[in-house]
Structure formats: C-alpha cells, structure tokens
Amino acid sequence: MTTNNISLERRVTIGCPQGSCCGPGFWNLLYNSIFKLEFRRHTKVIAFADDLMILTKGESIVEAENYMTLELRKISDWAQKNKLKFNENKSKVMLMSRRKRKEKKEVEIYLNNKTLEQVKK
Known about the structure:
Layout: H1 23-31, E1 43-48, E2 51-56, H2 61-81, E3 92-93, E4 110-111, E5 114-115, E6 117-118
Parallel strand pairs: 3-6
Antiparallel strand pairs: 1-2, 4-5
C-alpha cells in the first residue's frame, strides 16, 4: 500500500495567516489602536481574540440605533485607515432590554452600507 503525501503551499502577500505564530502579536499591535478612539460614555468596546463586540445603550431603541451608527462609522473609518475591513456578513446585531417595549424591536444597523442581521442569541 502506498501513501501519497500531498503538500499545499500558498504565498501570502498580505495579512497574516490564521493560526500563524506571528498572528496574535501582529493583531494586538494593530488592534490595540482601536481602543484609542473616543467613544461616547454609553458605548463599550470589547475585543476577543480577532473579534470585536460593541455595546451601546440609549433611552429608546431609536436612540441606541443612532449611537451605534455613529460608533460604527468611527470604527469603519479606523479600519479603512488601517487597510482593514470588517465583514458585514459575519457581523450581527442583538437588541437587549429589561423593559417590555411598545416601540419597534427591529433595529437597522449598517456596516459597509449593508444592514446587519439581527439575532436573538
């Protein structure tokens, strides 16, 4: 019985391959600068490895929507300056509230001029 060893190689010209030993260090050097952006007092940005969570609150859903739109614009501008792009297809929106609201429960948040999918969990 013979075994064929197949080796795939690909030259990386931009970025840092996922799983590489340099990846986390390079990402931290670049990503840390996002925390130097000035966010409003009702917004908190949290990073998990190569993911980003943005939390914002408002007195109404419309107010929270507006705040998030402004904050995402800052982050999108930061990404563009750093030659990065956040994937709008992988980005999600979740509405959380302790109150029973009579107002709309669907939010319209945009990233890269596309509406983000709203999820419940």
